Amino acid sequence: MTTLAQYLKDHASNPAVNDVITTITEVGKTISQLLKKGALADILGEAGNQNVQGEEQKKLDVLANDLLLEALTKNSHCAGVASEELDDATPANADGSLLVLFDPLDGSSNIDINMAVGTIFSILPYQRQGQPSKNGDFLQAGNKQLAAGYLLYGTSTMLALTVADDVVMFSLDPDSGDYILVQDKVTIDADTSEYAINSSNYRYWRAPMQQYIDELIAGEAGVRARDFNTRWVAAMVGDVHRILCRGGLFTYPFDTKYANKAGKLRLMYEANPMSLLIERAGGGATDAINRILDIEPTDIHQRIPVVLGSKNEVDYIKDLHLQHENK
Ligand code: F6P
Ligand code: MN
User: Fold this and answer.
1) Which of 71, 122, 136, 139 has a CA 20 to 30 Å removed from the CA of 299?
2) What pTM value is reported for the model?
3) What average pLDDT does the structure give for the chain?
Protein backbone atom coordinates (compact mmCIF):
# COMPACT_ATOMS: atom_id res chain seq x y z
CA MET A 1 0.00 0.00 0.00
CA THR A 2 1.48 3.36 -1.06
CA THR A 3 0.38 6.55 0.67
CA LEU A 4 0.54 9.97 -0.97
CA ALA A 5 3.38 10.94 1.39
CA GLN A 6 5.38 7.90 0.27
CA TYR A 7 4.59 8.46 -3.41
CA LEU A 8 5.70 12.11 -3.26
CA LYS A 9 8.92 11.11 -1.51
CA ASP A 10 9.71 8.53 -4.19
CA HIS A 11 8.58 10.38 -7.35
CA ALA A 12 8.69 14.14 -7.09
CA SER A 13 12.08 15.73 -7.46
CA ASN A 14 11.08 19.07 -5.92
CA PRO A 15 10.49 19.05 -2.12
CA ALA A 16 8.75 22.45 -2.32
CA VAL A 17 6.18 21.02 -4.75
CA ASN A 18 5.66 18.03 -2.44
CA ASP A 19 5.06 20.31 0.51
CA VAL A 20 2.51 22.47 -1.36
CA ILE A 21 0.66 19.37 -2.61
CA THR A 22 0.55 18.11 0.97
CA THR A 23 -0.96 21.43 2.12
CA ILE A 24 -3.64 21.33 -0.63
CA THR A 25 -4.56 17.70 0.00
CA GLU A 26 -4.77 18.26 3.77
CA VAL A 27 -7.27 21.10 3.18
CA GLY A 28 -9.06 18.71 0.79
CA LYS A 29 -9.73 16.41 3.77
CA THR A 30 -11.47 19.28 5.59
CA ILE A 31 -13.53 20.22 2.51
CA SER A 32 -14.46 16.57 2.07
CA GLN A 33 -15.65 16.42 5.71
CA LEU A 34 -17.72 19.59 5.32
CA LEU A 35 -19.37 18.20 2.18
CA LYS A 36 -20.17 14.96 3.99
CA LYS A 37 -21.95 16.92 6.72
CA GLY A 38 -23.83 18.79 3.99
CA ALA A 39 -26.92 20.58 5.18
CA LEU A 40 -25.95 19.83 8.80
CA ALA A 41 -22.82 22.00 8.57
CA ASP A 42 -24.67 25.21 7.70
CA ILE A 43 -22.68 25.46 4.50
CA LEU A 44 -25.37 25.24 1.85
CA GLY A 45 -27.16 28.14 0.22
CA GLU A 46 -25.96 31.59 -0.66
CA ALA A 47 -23.20 33.29 1.32
CA GLY A 48 -24.70 36.20 3.22
CA ASN A 49 -27.56 34.17 4.70
CA GLN A 50 -27.88 33.66 8.42
CA ASN A 51 -28.48 30.31 10.08
CA VAL A 52 -31.04 29.64 12.82
CA GLN A 53 -28.59 30.79 15.49
CA GLY A 54 -28.24 34.12 13.67
CA GLU A 55 -24.67 33.26 12.52
CA GLU A 56 -23.45 34.10 9.04
CA GLN A 57 -23.63 31.12 6.68
CA LYS A 58 -20.67 30.61 4.42
CA LYS A 59 -21.36 29.16 1.07
CA LEU A 60 -19.04 26.22 0.63
CA ASP A 61 -17.16 27.61 -2.35
CA VAL A 62 -16.26 30.70 -0.27
CA LEU A 63 -15.31 28.48 2.67
CA ALA A 64 -13.17 26.19 0.49
CA ASN A 65 -11.47 29.26 -0.96
CA ASP A 66 -10.75 30.69 2.50
CA LEU A 67 -9.36 27.38 3.81
CA LEU A 68 -7.01 26.94 0.84
CA LEU A 69 -5.94 30.57 0.90
CA GLU A 70 -5.15 30.48 4.61
CA ALA A 71 -3.18 27.24 4.42
CA LEU A 72 -1.25 28.13 1.27
CA THR A 73 -0.29 31.66 2.31
CA LYS A 74 1.23 30.08 5.45
CA ASN A 75 3.27 27.62 3.38
CA SER A 76 6.84 28.98 3.15
CA HIS A 77 7.28 27.68 -0.43
CA CYS A 78 4.25 29.52 -1.72
CA ALA A 79 5.01 32.98 -3.12
CA GLY A 80 1.46 33.73 -4.21
CA VAL A 81 -2.02 32.32 -4.64
CA ALA A 82 -4.63 32.95 -7.34
CA SER A 83 -8.18 31.67 -7.04
CA GLU A 84 -11.36 31.65 -9.09
CA GLU A 85 -13.01 33.36 -6.11
CA LEU A 86 -10.61 36.33 -5.86
CA ASP A 87 -10.26 39.15 -8.40
CA ASP A 88 -6.53 39.54 -7.79
CA ALA A 89 -3.78 37.17 -6.78
CA THR A 90 -2.73 37.21 -3.12
CA PRO A 91 1.01 37.60 -2.44
CA ALA A 92 2.31 35.11 0.14
CA ASN A 93 5.94 34.43 1.09
CA ALA A 94 8.25 36.39 -1.20
CA ASP A 95 11.06 33.86 -0.67
CA GLY A 96 8.87 31.01 -1.90
CA SER A 97 9.66 29.34 -5.23
CA LEU A 98 6.10 28.45 -6.25
CA LEU A 99 2.82 30.03 -7.32
CA VAL A 100 -0.45 28.16 -6.80
CA LEU A 101 -3.70 28.63 -8.72
CA PHE A 102 -6.92 26.89 -7.78
CA ASP A 103 -10.61 26.54 -8.41
CA PRO A 104 -11.64 25.85 -4.79
CA LEU A 105 -14.92 24.16 -5.61
CA ASP A 106 -15.49 23.33 -9.24
CA GLY A 107 -19.05 22.54 -10.30
CA SER A 108 -20.55 24.57 -7.46
CA SER A 109 -24.10 24.32 -8.88
CA ASN A 110 -23.81 20.67 -7.77
CA ILE A 111 -23.21 21.50 -4.07
CA ASP A 112 -26.80 22.05 -3.03
CA ILE A 113 -28.01 18.87 -4.76
CA ASN A 114 -25.49 16.51 -3.14
CA MET A 115 -23.65 15.79 -6.41
CA ALA A 116 -19.95 15.59 -7.21
CA VAL A 117 -17.75 18.70 -6.94
CA GLY A 118 -13.99 19.12 -6.74
CA THR A 119 -10.91 21.27 -6.16
CA ILE A 120 -8.59 21.87 -9.14
CA PHE A 121 -5.01 23.12 -8.67
CA SER A 122 -2.04 24.19 -10.74
CA ILE A 123 1.51 24.82 -9.48
CA LEU A 124 3.86 27.16 -11.37
CA PRO A 125 7.44 28.28 -10.70
CA TYR A 126 7.96 31.75 -9.21
CA GLN A 127 10.57 33.72 -11.13
CA ARG A 128 11.10 36.77 -8.87
CA GLN A 129 12.00 35.22 -5.51
CA GLY A 130 12.61 37.82 -2.82
CA GLN A 131 10.03 40.28 -4.18
CA PRO A 132 6.27 40.22 -3.52
CA SER A 133 4.36 38.42 -6.26
CA LYS A 134 1.87 40.20 -8.54
CA ASN A 135 -0.85 39.09 -10.95
CA GLY A 136 1.59 39.27 -13.87
CA ASP A 137 3.85 36.61 -12.31
CA PHE A 138 1.08 34.04 -12.78
CA LEU A 139 0.77 34.65 -16.53
CA GLN A 140 2.78 31.60 -17.62
CA ALA A 141 1.73 29.04 -20.23
CA GLY A 142 0.39 25.72 -18.94
CA ASN A 143 3.47 23.90 -20.26
CA LYS A 144 5.38 25.57 -17.39
CA GLN A 145 3.30 23.82 -14.70
CA LEU A 146 5.43 21.85 -12.22
CA ALA A 147 2.43 19.84 -11.02
CA ALA A 148 -1.34 19.78 -11.38
CA GLY A 149 -4.27 17.80 -10.10
CA TYR A 150 -7.73 17.74 -8.65
CA LEU A 151 -9.60 16.41 -5.66
CA LEU A 152 -12.96 14.92 -6.57
CA TYR A 153 -15.47 14.84 -3.72
CA GLY A 154 -17.74 12.11 -5.00
CA THR A 155 -19.07 8.99 -3.32
CA SER A 156 -15.44 8.67 -2.30
CA THR A 157 -12.81 11.41 -2.29
CA MET A 158 -10.16 10.91 -4.93
CA LEU A 159 -7.00 12.74 -5.91
CA ALA A 160 -5.69 12.73 -9.50
CA LEU A 161 -2.16 14.06 -9.67
CA THR A 162 0.74 14.61 -12.00
CA VAL A 163 4.10 15.55 -10.51
CA ALA A 164 6.34 13.51 -12.78
CA ASP A 165 5.61 12.11 -16.27
CA ASP A 166 2.70 9.98 -15.10
CA VAL A 167 -0.83 10.58 -13.91
CA VAL A 168 -1.73 8.72 -10.72
CA MET A 169 -4.85 8.40 -8.61
CA PHE A 170 -5.31 8.16 -4.86
CA SER A 171 -8.40 7.41 -2.80
CA LEU A 172 -8.89 9.03 0.62
CA ASP A 173 -9.26 6.25 3.18
CA PRO A 174 -11.93 7.54 5.60
CA ASP A 175 -10.60 5.26 8.37
CA SER A 176 -6.91 6.15 8.34
CA GLY A 177 -7.26 9.62 6.79
CA ASP A 178 -4.50 8.73 4.28
CA TYR A 179 -4.59 9.11 0.53
CA ILE A 180 -3.84 5.62 -0.84
CA LEU A 181 -2.50 5.01 -4.36
CA VAL A 182 -5.17 3.14 -6.32
CA GLN A 183 -3.95 3.59 -9.89
CA ASP A 184 -0.55 4.38 -11.27
CA LYS A 185 0.03 5.26 -14.91
CA VAL A 186 -3.47 6.32 -15.88
CA THR A 187 -3.94 6.10 -19.68
CA ILE A 188 -6.75 7.25 -21.98
CA ASP A 189 -7.71 5.18 -25.04
CA ALA A 190 -7.44 7.11 -28.31
CA ASP A 191 -10.96 6.04 -29.34
CA THR A 192 -14.23 6.57 -27.50
CA SER A 193 -17.98 6.50 -28.01
CA GLU A 194 -18.79 8.78 -25.07
CA TYR A 195 -18.97 12.59 -25.13
CA ALA A 196 -19.83 15.41 -22.72
CA ILE A 197 -21.22 18.77 -23.81
CA ASN A 198 -23.99 21.11 -22.66
CA SER A 199 -25.96 20.91 -25.90
CA SER A 200 -28.50 23.53 -24.77
CA ASN A 201 -25.85 26.02 -26.00
CA TYR A 202 -25.92 24.59 -29.55
CA ARG A 203 -27.07 27.85 -31.14
CA TYR A 204 -24.07 29.73 -29.69
CA TRP A 205 -21.41 27.38 -31.11
CA ARG A 206 -19.36 27.70 -34.28
CA ALA A 207 -20.46 25.74 -37.34
CA PRO A 208 -17.75 23.01 -37.10
CA MET A 209 -18.73 22.19 -33.50
CA GLN A 210 -22.41 22.04 -34.53
CA GLN A 211 -21.39 19.71 -37.38
CA TYR A 212 -19.38 17.49 -35.01
CA ILE A 213 -22.27 17.07 -32.57
CA ASP A 214 -24.74 16.54 -35.46
CA GLU A 215 -22.51 13.69 -36.65
CA LEU A 216 -22.38 12.08 -33.19
CA ILE A 217 -26.15 12.32 -32.77
CA ALA A 218 -26.70 10.77 -36.24
CA GLY A 219 -24.71 7.79 -34.90
CA GLU A 220 -24.81 4.59 -36.94
CA ALA A 221 -26.97 6.23 -39.61
CA GLY A 222 -24.49 9.11 -40.18
CA VAL A 223 -20.92 9.61 -41.43
CA ARG A 224 -19.43 8.27 -38.18
CA ALA A 225 -21.26 4.97 -38.77
CA ARG A 226 -21.47 4.13 -35.05
CA ASP A 227 -23.51 5.23 -32.06
CA PHE A 228 -22.28 7.64 -29.37
CA ASN A 229 -23.55 8.26 -25.84
CA THR A 230 -23.72 11.51 -23.80
CA ARG A 231 -22.62 11.93 -20.18
CA TRP A 232 -22.66 15.38 -18.45
CA VAL A 233 -21.79 15.77 -14.76
CA ALA A 234 -22.04 19.62 -14.86
CA ALA A 235 -18.76 19.73 -12.94
CA MET A 236 -15.69 19.65 -15.16
CA VAL A 237 -13.82 17.78 -12.45
CA GLY A 238 -16.35 14.91 -12.68
CA ASP A 239 -16.29 14.77 -16.47
CA VAL A 240 -12.48 14.81 -16.56
CA HIS A 241 -12.38 12.09 -13.91
CA ARG A 242 -14.63 9.88 -16.02
CA ILE A 243 -12.34 10.45 -19.01
CA LEU A 244 -9.25 9.50 -16.99
CA CYS A 245 -11.11 6.36 -15.84
CA ARG A 246 -12.61 5.14 -19.13
CA GLY A 247 -11.92 7.62 -21.93
CA GLY A 248 -14.32 10.05 -23.60
CA LEU A 249 -14.51 13.54 -25.00
CA PHE A 250 -15.31 16.66 -22.96
CA THR A 251 -15.91 20.04 -24.47
CA TYR A 252 -17.07 23.47 -23.39
CA PRO A 253 -16.54 24.96 -26.83
CA PHE A 254 -16.32 28.45 -28.27
CA ASP A 255 -19.66 29.88 -27.22
CA THR A 256 -20.91 33.41 -27.92
CA LYS A 257 -23.25 33.22 -24.90
CA TYR A 258 -20.40 34.32 -22.62
CA ALA A 259 -19.30 37.95 -22.38
CA ASN A 260 -15.87 37.27 -23.87
CA LYS A 261 -17.56 35.51 -26.81
CA ALA A 262 -15.13 32.62 -26.45
CA GLY A 263 -16.09 30.07 -23.82
CA LYS A 264 -17.00 29.48 -20.20
CA LEU A 265 -14.02 27.75 -18.64
CA ARG A 266 -11.02 29.49 -17.18
CA LEU A 267 -7.58 28.85 -18.69
CA MET A 268 -5.35 29.10 -15.66
CA TYR A 269 -7.09 27.06 -12.95
CA GLU A 270 -9.43 24.85 -14.99
CA ALA A 271 -8.16 24.24 -18.53
CA ASN A 272 -4.39 24.21 -17.84
CA PRO A 273 -4.27 21.75 -14.92
CA MET A 274 -6.82 19.45 -16.59
CA SER A 275 -4.92 19.62 -19.91
CA LEU A 276 -1.68 18.60 -18.20
CA LEU A 277 -3.38 15.58 -16.63
CA ILE A 278 -5.13 14.61 -19.89
CA GLU A 279 -2.02 14.96 -22.07
CA ARG A 280 0.18 13.04 -19.66
CA ALA A 281 -2.40 10.25 -19.74
CA GLY A 282 -2.12 10.15 -23.55
CA GLY A 283 -5.14 12.28 -24.45
CA GLY A 284 -5.39 15.62 -26.27
CA ALA A 285 -6.39 19.09 -25.04
CA THR A 286 -7.05 22.03 -27.37
CA ASP A 287 -9.19 25.15 -27.73
CA ALA A 288 -10.56 23.25 -30.80
CA ILE A 289 -7.41 24.02 -32.84
CA ASN A 290 -4.46 25.06 -30.65
CA ARG A 291 -2.81 23.13 -27.82
CA ILE A 292 -4.11 24.63 -24.57
CA LEU A 293 -0.78 24.16 -22.74
CA ASP A 294 0.95 26.47 -25.26
CA ILE A 295 -1.49 29.39 -24.88
CA GLU A 296 0.22 32.47 -23.40
CA PRO A 297 -2.23 33.85 -20.82
CA THR A 298 -3.11 37.54 -20.70
CA ASP A 299 -5.29 37.52 -17.56
CA ILE A 300 -5.51 35.20 -14.54
CA HIS A 301 -9.27 34.82 -15.10
CA GLN A 302 -9.10 34.43 -18.89
CA ARG A 303 -11.75 32.14 -20.41
CA ILE A 304 -11.13 29.86 -23.36
CA PRO A 305 -12.89 27.12 -25.34
CA VAL A 306 -11.90 23.62 -24.15
CA VAL A 307 -11.85 20.34 -26.09
CA LEU A 308 -10.16 17.46 -24.26
CA GLY A 309 -10.02 13.70 -23.92
CA SER A 310 -9.57 10.73 -26.26
CA LYS A 311 -6.98 11.74 -28.84
CA ASN A 312 -8.75 10.71 -32.04
CA GLU A 313 -11.88 12.73 -31.24
CA VAL A 314 -9.82 15.81 -30.23
CA ASP A 315 -7.89 15.53 -33.53
CA TYR A 316 -11.09 15.03 -35.54
CA ILE A 317 -12.62 18.21 -34.03
CA LYS A 318 -9.43 20.08 -34.97
CA ASP A 319 -9.70 18.79 -38.57
CA LEU A 320 -13.33 19.96 -38.82
CA HIS A 321 -12.35 23.44 -37.55
CA LEU A 322 -9.39 23.70 -39.95
CA GLN A 323 -11.52 22.57 -42.90
CA HIS A 324 -14.05 25.23 -41.97
CA GLU A 325 -11.35 27.94 -41.72
CA ASN A 326 -9.92 27.00 -45.12
CA LYS A 327 -13.27 27.13 -46.92
O1 F6P B 1 -16.59 25.87 -13.44
C2 F6P B 1 -17.48 25.95 -14.47
C3 F6P B 1 -18.39 24.74 -14.52
O4 F6P B 1 -19.09 24.57 -13.32
C5 F6P B 1 -17.69 23.44 -14.91
O6 F6P B 1 -17.25 22.72 -13.81
C7 F6P B 1 -18.76 22.68 -15.66
O8 F6P B 1 -18.22 21.84 -16.63
C9 F6P B 1 -19.56 23.78 -16.27
O10 F6P B 1 -19.29 24.98 -15.57
C11 F6P B 1 -21.02 23.51 -16.22
O12 F6P B 1 -21.64 24.36 -17.07
P13 F6P B 1 -23.21 24.38 -17.35
O14 F6P B 1 -23.75 25.28 -16.29
O15 F6P B 1 -23.33 24.95 -18.72
O16 F6P B 1 -23.73 22.96 -17.25
MN1 MN C 1 -14.95 25.59 -11.99
Assistant:
1) 71
2) 0.96
3) 94
